[in-house]
Amino acid sequence: MGERYDGTSRRRLLQAGALGAGAVIAPGVLGAGSAAASGTDAAGASQARESQAGKHVASGRIDTEHPRFTVAVVPDTQYQFDQDRGDSAPLTASFEWLIEQRAAENIVFVAHLGDVVENALAMEFAQADPVFKILDRARYPYSVLAGNHDIDASKDDTRGASAYLNTFGPQRFRRMATYGGSTANGYNSYHVFRAAGRQWLLLAMDWRPSDASFAWAREVIAKHPRLPVILTTHELVNADHGNPVAYFTDHGNRVWDQLVKDNDQIFLTLNGHFWPPGRVVRQNAAGHDVHLHLTNYQDRYYGGSGMIRLYHFELARNTIDVETIAPWIMDQDPARRSELAEGELELTDDTNRFSIPIDFAERFAGFAPVAVRAARPAAQLVIPGTAAYWRFDGPVADQVVDHSGKGNHLTRVQLGGDAPVASAEFHADQPGHASWLFAGGKNPARGGYLRTADNAPLNALTFANGYTIEAFVKLADDNADHSWEGLLSRMGTGADAGKTGSDPSEPVVNLAFSGGRQLQWAVYPLDRNDTFTNWGHEQVAGKWFHLAVVNDGRHSTLYVDSSPLLRNPATPSNGLATAGKPWLLAANHYDNVIEQAFAGHIGELRIVTRALKPSQFLNA
Question: Are residues 517 and 539 in contact, defined by beta-carbon separation less than 8 angstroms?
């Protein structure tokens, strides 16, 4: 699943085994229920592991502000606590692994999906209780809900006292900082945890919530109107063998109608009960996606081997990466691991290892819109060394003012075709809250562009001490051929500037995009006879980005969204050659003939006569 939170390959972790202490040997090697080569019985081994886990209290700190975090999901564990037929070793190993990997995976919460035990017996809960105390001692926030095997399944959550409630009632969770409260009957609860710089709400709902409990859940959501909600319950969707597309059960329809459909904050639901696993996406009343997932492995080897699902939220990538692993099996000596166990180490089929694309800001905008960064006046961005600063935050006009005060105003030129139009769109970090949309093309050259006056001071500058050129751009996503369109160019060829190397008919300066939308900075430096070229990667059409070219007097570096790119020449070069001719914005030329105008949005562009650090860029 890519890279671990600390940079270590998870694949290597799985192959090598994650846990060092308390190793559990496969039952197929030493006999059913055996836990170690020494012959220690399962109960003794469990106690030893609990003691070991106690050493991990607060051993790893999570980062609640990092854009990547993990929610661990533990489905039906009932066969591990089945009168005298179970074995707590798998779940113990899973909990120990969660503790040991808490910081590495940035695991902020653990959710059990019900059916903790098989027969709802007090003796079974007495077996499960010390295993969950491993998490308690580590001060690990988690939730538990009642499945049909945990209680009298013929009754809803007004059923009254139970062995489940004695073990996993509100009294168990009150110590947790995440615990928000429970229904009066004790069978439903909610938690609020912090991750990725915001709070998230998780509901843990009973096997059969009463109407009053659904009303309680709606009230909880209403009291937290800006929080994204994850709903956990025991039954909601089912799936069939050979078809992982999940579907609602009769009870699932009730949950959807009473709780999910009209609560836009619920974006993800997790349930167990059925197997095999499956998932489906359904739109709520607001027209937004709700991801509904079924997770259960009790039908697999050793009652599911304590398998856990890890939901890795990647807010920077707008993705949730999901994987399914069995730490108990990971902990076993590979040389002694049974054949059945080997197949359960991790599940890598598309049903159990997948990614969910979610634009979190867009999905949550209906109840928690991202605050728009305030506009900043142009004068605030005119820093020492600013040679030109153009903003396209007003109506389309024949002239664009240079806010630097240097008089490098731009004049609009129309080649034919459609003229630029004013747009309300802008980059989220752009100082000016608007842009111009250019409709350029080629064969023939068409669209509008801008140029400096013939006598503009900018035309003569050579930038011998360095420069920074930066802009906010969104390339047109119209399937037309815009290969080699120019964003910024300088009239005059290499030959006009006295250069004879490379292709002297090329512009002395050209910031353009290749046929593959790769950013290219191609220039004739002052001290070189050939062009020097920096290359970027392919840019996504239809998506805003900030770009910058920075030269410190010797080397040039391209940046996109403040990240330095790879293909920057190592050979020193100085300044920019000039033929004393105008600069072009939204166009390029060859041999001083305009080939095409730019297609897409331009928000603003600034040129500074020194190298800036990313912290000084316009998007900072």
Answer: yes
Question: Secondary structure of the chain: what % helix, strand, coil (to 5)?
Answer: 20, 30, 50
Q: Helix crossing, 122-137 with 42-54: angle to 10°?
A: 30
What is the SS3 assignment for 435-447? Answer: EEEEECEECCCEC
Give me 304's structure tokens. Answer: 């599911």
CA distance 433 to 437: 13
Give the integer Cα–Cα distance in Å for 585 and 362.
32
- The series of mean pLDDT values per 10 residues for the chain, 620 residues long, is 33 36 31 31 38 42 96 98 96 98 97 98 98 98 98 97 98 97 98 98 98 98 98 98 96 98 98 97 98 96 96 97 97 94 94 97 96 95 98 97 98 97 97 98 96 98 98 96 97 97 97 96 96 96 97 97 96 96 97 97 98 97
Query: DSSP secondary-structure letter at 472?
Result: E
Look at residues 489, 515, 495, 518 and name the one whose alpha carbon lies nearest to residue 597.
Answer: 489
Q: Which amino acid is at 350?
A: D
Q: What is the per-residue pLDDT for 16?
A: 38
Q: Determine the pLDDT at residue 60.
A: 66
Contact by Cβ (8 Å): 494, 501: yes
Bond before 384 cis per omega within 30 degrees: no
Structure tokens at 348: 């890598």
Whether the CB-CB separation of 593 and 478 falls below 8 Å is answered with no
Predicted pLDDT of residue 14: 38
- The distance of Cα 502 from the centroid of its chain, to the nearest Å, equals 43
Backbone angles phi, psi at 396, to 5 degrees: -65, 130
Q: How many other CB atoms are found less than 10 A from the CB of residue 354?
A: 15
Of the candidates 471, 491, 454, the residue with the CA atom closest to the CA atom of residue 589: 491
Q: What are phi and psi of 361, to 5 degrees?
A: -60, -40
Q: How far apart are CA 92 and CA 378, in angstroms?
A: 60
Q: Provide the token pair at 453.
A: 């006056």
**Looking up tokens 């292709």, which residue turns up?**
503
In angstroms, rounded to a whole number, what is the distance separating the alpha carbons of residues 485 and 512? 6
Per-residue tokens: 98 = 């969660």
Structure-derived torsion over alpha carbons of residues 96, 12, 72, 163, reported in degrees to the nearest 10: -40
Q: Which residues contact 458 (CB under 8 A, 6 or more apart)?
A: 387, 388, 406, 408, 452, 583, 607
Nearest-angstrom CA–CA distance, 111 and 77: 12
The tokens of 399 are what?
């002239």
Quote the pLDDT of residue 479.
87
Residues 6+ apart with CB under 8 A from 312: 1, 68, 69, 70, 105, 320, 321, 322, 323
CA 298 – CA 76 distance, rounded (Å)? 6
pLDDT of residue 592: 97
Q: CA 552, CA 153: separation in Å to the nearest integer?
A: 72
Nearest of 272, 41, 259 to residue 150 by alpha carbon: 272
CA distance 620 to 616: 6
Q: pLDDT value at position 1?
A: 34
pLDDT at 160: 97
